[in-house]
Structure formats: structure tokens, C-alpha cells
Amino acid sequence: MSKKPFLTKAEAENIIKRFPTPFHIYDERAIRQNARDLNKAFSWNKGFREYFAVKATPNPTILKILKEEGCGTDCSSYTELFMSKKCGFEAPYIMFSSNDTPPDEFKYADSIGAIINLDDITHIETLEKACGIPETVCCRYNPGGTFSISTTIMDNPGEAKYGMTKEQIIEAYKTLKSKGAKKFGIHSFLASNTTTNEYYPTLAKILFELIVEIKEKTGIEISFINLSGGVGVPYDPDKEPNDIFAIGEGVHKVFDEILVPAGLGNASIYTELGRFMLAPYGHLVTTVIHEKHIHKDYIGVDACAVNLMRPAMYGAYHHITVLGKEDCECDHTYDVTGSLCENNDKFAVDRKLPKIDIGDILVIHDTGAHGFSMGYNYNGRLKSNELLLREDGSVVEIRRAETPEDYFSTLEGYWDIIR
Ligand SMILES: *Cc1c(COP(=O)(O)O)cnc(C)c1O
Predict the structure, then answer these.
(1) Of 199, 202, 296, 346, which has the fewest beta carbons less than 10 angstroms from its beta carbon?
(2) How far is residue 261 CA from its own chain's centroid?
(3) pTM beyond cutoff 0.85
(4) Which residue from 74, 193, 271 has its CB within 8 A of the most atoms of ligand 1, so it is best to mutate?
(5) Which positions of the chain have pLDDT values less than 50?
(6) Which H or E run contains 212?
(7) All domains of the chain, ordered by start, with CATH?
């Protein structure tokens, strides 16, 4: 299989006349279609709701598109909560799934009607002191050990800082109830970027069995199950994408097997997807500005890890298309690099690509989530703008690029420096 960009070379050239590279661009039509598919896949569950993980793509225009598609937001900090509020999200459309949470943020989350998801049993006291115990509250579960699907180890919850043990979470629900909480949720995030349709159903089974046990032991009925994030996307063109309809049906099946017979068939399923909602629908577009031939062949582009950190940080694969050379043979081997004074600032290492020339436009794929948002300012490099390809084919700027003034603006006396 191959990955096809949502822009042709001619379209990209047109955009570049108005907005020079590098930039991030998102495909509104595809974002909406994917959100509709997710909602349809879970339409068997009356209370289903996706809370988009804001950290993946914290842009108000994107949040508003998802809002129109019926989604809420999942936040983990004051600024994400504030952005959600300003975008018009209200209770019960904001989830606050934070950890190591400053008490003031509980207070703010509560004041805007966010559902608070407690990461630790000690946070009950913090929350109570900050704003009192709300009527609706969620707790995060960490089963420990390793998390496997069939015989494959997917991840290592025993090493993860998140959530409460089983004993703690049962204790937490009892305490919260005694302090006046009336409606309870459970949340767990056990594996990231999974490319199997079995992840959600496997996680759902663990959580469903636990809430049946909680009901039997304490009489407390959990009314929503937050499966959180973790449904992945195929960054590699050889990998199959997840089938959201198969995932929805997989969760439906365990719901009918476990929750319905236990009298918990009214429970709502929530998700907090970030990557799955946005990653494939964003491109980082960058122009080749140098080539260099020493012990290896390097292609230097005008973007760097400041614009997309995943390859530098995790060695993550992001597919690259050379616009206009889609059908050329990939008979050259290159490292594609940015300008940071860090040797890991490479979008690709030993990548087979067509012969590249200075001035070629590259599309770096699957940058719609955890792309722009992970950016930083190392080497004084500035973050790019973000563009939106609208459904009618027009392109609008939804965040301007940083300027040197922005970079200096937090310094004392910065005007003296930039003058
Ligand atoms: C990061 C995160 C998500 C989203 O994860 P994706 O892998 O982008 O789907 C959801 N919930 C929580 C609590 C997270 O930390």
C-alpha cells in the first residue's frame, strides 16, 4: 500500500504562494468523516461520547469542527480547559483527565462543569479541599502487570505512573459516595497507538468485569466507562488501518455479554481519542533547501523537530511523499534533516525516496495529532502556522506562525533586545 497526500503538487504550490513553508495543514472533510464514522460505530450505545484529547491538536478551529460533530474535549491542564470553555464546550462535554494535578486546576475544572477524572486516591482530599466533591466523578484504574492481547504484550501498566490499584479504586468509590458523589465513571488507558481492532474490546472486558465486581461488593453502580485514547493509526504504509466499525462491534459484544446481564446495560461508553481523530488528516509541508553529500546523503528541509518532534523523540516513522514525484522509483537513500544542532533532528533515516532536488516540496504524513502540539523552541527556532483545507477546497490560516517578537515576549525588557 502507499500513502496518498491530500494535496497535489499544484495545490501545494498555490498554497505556498500565500503561506510559505513550513506549515501544518489539516483536512476538514476527512476529520468530519472520521468523527462521523466513530459516532456511528458506537451508535448502539445510547450515551456514547468522544472527548477529543485536546493535547493532540490544541487549535480552537479544530475543536469547533469536532464540537459540530458531537464531540466533547478531554483536557489535562488549565489552558486546555480554558480553550474548551472559550470554544463553547459545557457540561457534560468536558472531561478533565489529568495527573499530578495542581489543586487550583481541580477548582477551575469544577467551575466550568468539567467531569473530573481522579488519577489517585489521595486526590479525593485535594479535590474536596479545592472545591468540594462534585456529584459526578470518575476514577482512573491501573491494573498493574503487563497488558496483553492474546499472547502479545502490548504495554506495561505496572511501570506506568497513572491510575489507582484495584483495592484503591474500590476504596475511592466508597469514600466518594460517602462524601456525596452520586454518579460514577471509570477510566483506563493501557496501551498507546494500538493497531489492532482488539484493543478497545480487551480493555472494555477488563473494565466491565471490574464494575460488575464493584457493584457486587459495594452496591455502587458505575454509569460511564471511559476507554480513553490509544486507538492508533498506521504511520507505516504497510500497516493496515484500524476498522472503527469492528472496534465498535467488539465493544458492543462484550457489553452485551458482561454488562447487560449484570443490570448495567444503561452504562455509557466514552472515548478520549486524540491520534485516531486527527493524525492521518494533517500534513507537515516543507521545502527542500539543501542537499549534502558526505559519508551519507542528506536532504535539508525548512522544517525541523520544532515542527514535528516524534521522529527525534521516539524514532517514530513518518511517511514522506515528494510532491510531483509520486510515481517515481524510490531508488535513492537519504536522511531528511532539519536545522537543529542535534543529530536526532531527522525526519527520516536511510529512507528510500525518489531523487530529490532543491526546491522539491515534501509532505510529511500523519502529523495531525501530537505534531504541532509537541513543538518547542530549541535553537530559537519558531513554530509554524497551521492551515485548514476547508470542505470547499479553500485554505484558511487557523494559527499564525510565531515571530521573533513572540519568542522574546516573556523576557524582561524584551523590547530592548529586539530593537
Ligand atoms: C494522551 C491521552 C489521550 C489521547 O491519546 P491518543 O493516543 O492520542 O488517542 C487520551 N486520554 C488521556 C488521559 C491521555 O493522556
Answers:
(1) 296
(2) 34
(3) yes
(4) 74
(5) none
(6) helix 199-218
(7) 9-24+280-408 (2.40.37.10), 28-279 (3.20.20.10)
Question: What pairing do the DSSP bridges indicate for beta strands 49-53 and 268-271?
Answer: parallel
Which cell numbers in the block locate residue 191?
496501551
pLDDT for 418: 65
- Residue 380 burial by Cβ neighbours in a 10 Å radius (0-12, 13-18, 19+): exposed
Q: Is 362 left (phi over 0), alpha (psi -120 to 50) or beta?
A: beta
With contact defined as beta carbons under 8 Å apart, do 407 and 382 qualify? yes
Phi, psi of 148 (to 5 degrees): -120, 150
- Ligand 1, atom 9, lies closest to the CA of 229
| Closest-lying ligand 1 atom to the alpha carbon of residue 273 | 9
What residue ranges line ligand 1, CB within 6 angstroms?
A: 53, 55-56, 74, 97, 189, 192-193, 228-230, 272-276, 369
Mutate to test the pocket of ligand 1, among 196, 226, 228 (most ligand atoms within 8 A of CB): 228
